[in-house]
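In response to reviewer comment 3 from the previous cycle, which asked for concrete evidence that the modeling workflow produces usable outputs, we include below a single protein chain processed end to end. The sequence was submitted unchanged, and the resulting C-alpha cells are shown without manual editing.
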Amino acid sequence: MVCTFTLCSVADHGQAIAEMRRVLKADGKLLYLEHGCAPEPVVALWQERIEPGWRPLAGNCHLTRLVGAALRGGGLAVEPLGQGYLPKAPKVLGWTEWGVARLPGI
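The workflow returned the following C-alpha cells.
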C-alpha cells in the first residue's frame, strides 16, 4: 500500500490510519511519504499560526500533524527511512517524512 501526501488532508487521519491497518495484509507494507509538523520549534510555531488560514486554501491540509507518531498511535510498527525539508519549499510547508509501516510483530 502507498500513502503519499494524504494524511495531512483527510478529515480524520486516525480513522484513515485505522482503515489502512485494517486492510493491510499480515505480511504487507505501507510505504509512506507525508508532510507534517517540523521538528524545529520556531518552524512548528509558525506552522501552528498559519494552519487555520492555510487549511481552507489547501484542501484541508494540516501542517502540524505528526506523521510517525500518528502511524504508531494507529497500531503500526514504523521504520523511518528519511526526513527533511523539500528543496525550494518554505520550511513551514516543506517538512517531509518517509518510511515503511507494518503490522506489529511482522
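The radius of gyration is 14 Å. We consider this sufficient to address the reviewer's concern, and the full set will be provided in the supplementary archive.
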